[in-house]
Fold:
Amino acid sequence: MITINRCDKRAGKKFRGGSTDGAVSIFLIIALSAVFIFVAVFIDFARVAAMKVQSERLARAAVRSVMSSYDPQLQQEYGLFAFGESEGDYIMGKMLNDNLSPGERGDAFHLLPLELDSSGLTLERPLGKYDIFNRQISEDMKYKAPIDFTLELVNKYKPLSQSMKEASNAMDVLKKLRKLYDKREAALNEMLEKQRQAGKNVQKLAELVMNPPGSSIQDESLGGSVRTAEDAAAQYNDYLLKMQEDAARPADEEKLYTFLIAAYLGDVSSVTSDMLQKVAKIQKEQDKLLKEADELLEEARAINEEMKQVIKDAEARSETEGYDQVTNNHTPGSDGSNAGDADIIRSIRGQAEKLIHTDEVLNGLGDEISAQRRGWVQANERISSLLSSMGGSGMKGAVISASDALQDYLRKYGVSGSENILDRELAMLEQFRSSDAERKETEKKAQNQLKEAAKIVEALSGASPKNQEIMDQFRELQRYYDESVAFNNGETGVSEGRALESDPYDAGKSSMDDMDDAYGSMGNLLSGIRDELYQNEYAVHYFQHFDITQLEKVLKDPASAQNLNQEFAVEKQEVEYILYGFHNPSGNIAAAYGEIFASRLAIRTMEGFVVNSKMGNPLLILAAAILYGVEKAIEDMIRLTQEGSIQLSKYMPVEISYRDHLRMFMFIHSNNEKKMSRMLALIRMHTGVNPADRGTYASGEVVTGMRLWFLPGITRMLGTVLGESTDQVEGNRYLITRSADFSY
Structure:
């Protein structure tokens, strides 16, 4: 029993010891397994995290590689970036495969054995879109455009800003006043003519009363003709005598003077009837003509008041604010000095008051119309007295009295002479208009000179090169332009040039308006750089302008414009085309020439105001300034076609090139979308690249996979724990999708 018990005790001990060791082992196995699983999970977790970073880098590098294949011609010739002709998907796939392919060593250990599952590429935002094209222009020109614009253009025009402002104001107010002045004076002339006509209308009545007029009437015998009241009065005493003689004869005795008496009475009746008709007609005409004279005077008064308002409004003209902006804005390289003589031009505008008629003058003219009306009333009363005495006693006195009244009326209002009131009024007005004749002559000279300048523009506009290739170029260019506008959902429209005005005043005012616009644009741009500046400067930097010296022969012989052929090729007038948009060989050149002439006319007219400031009458100064401007502008155009540049002004002797003029006009014609379509059309023509087909933005997507090393059975859990919405788990492979974008 003891032995058995001891054996059992040992066995029990052994059994109990083996159980403990096994439990520990199982526990350790479970613990180690948990640790192993935990570590394995984090190993794969780390590999997945590294895989994500690597995939992100690969995606970005792949898209960058694609976009590195930009079109070299666009970049070199126009400073633009757009994807070239290569296959983007091929470039992207090759780059990914090269980076993911394993090395040649068979014993190499790859911690991240990434595999390319798929890749995709989308090219967007074509260069032909306005916003994309404009952004690239801005990037290219954002540094040099403001500097070049300020140093090469603004600083040259800035010293003239105040003189040009005053010249523009003077042109505006004096041109308006000239039109009103001529209209007012024409109304006053017509008023005097109505009065004069009313005065002359009594001439035949006066002749019917007494012709010639006199202070006495001699008696005459019956038997003479009775054509006037004077004749009736002269024969009246003889008529009475013969009436008495015939009345004293017995009834059976023949009446000797019956025929003479009857003839006399018939003639008197006829004269009386004629006088009644004439008086009625004259009364109607007097009322009508003098009423019209009153209306014309009131029209002159209204115009006179309008002229006063024009002068008043000129002090608050908003169109010239741009001049002040340019003057007051500090620009590097400018000393802030002013050229010209703004004060003198301002004083000319101050002389505009000389063109206004005083109320005293106009009231005096109105008083004379009333006096003329009263004068006719008095004469009519005398005529009425005469008519009532016709065929009766007292005719002589009535005739003389009526004749005196009519002659007085005629002397004052109908017949020229020292007593004619209308002549005195006209002389007073002519003294006020003393400069009109010289002004009219000056206007005529300016108009003739302007016609000569217009011949050049007309010759250029009508020039038609015989080179079919050039015509085909412009047709192709128009097609590209229309497609660009349609691609941007814009409106094509029709380019319209502005012909050179035939009237000197209209030409002068139009040129000043353009200068207002130019300075206004410069002022706005100096206040804040805008896209328009970048686009304009881009156009003149990257595109070719016309060689203006080619027109030297045309100025000498306008007909020679027809001989220009290759000079009008598209590639030789790109800037002009961008500016005006004519799809014909000569339209853009003609428009540029005409606009340069207009700008020269504006500057030279400003000089003309100063040169002719002592002429006295402001309208004469205006006419002389325009004549000076036209003559000097013609001289400038001759020099420009000879040398390619001219002095800005006699007060600012800096050189302004043909190209500088085009830069200025770019701001006046500010239809930016059409300008961009024209530039895009030119780029397409010269490079063969359609900007609408070339993307500037790439969006790439790369899907990479990697096998997990540990615990393939829990990959779904890993996908849930470690993955993102774009990540996937397929079996023991972990797939990651990454996107990258790149824009020029």
Q: What stands out?
A: Confidence is low (pLDDT under 50) at residues 1-17. The two ends are 101 Å apart (CA to CA). The chain is about 65% helix and 5% strand. The first helix runs from residue 2 to 67.
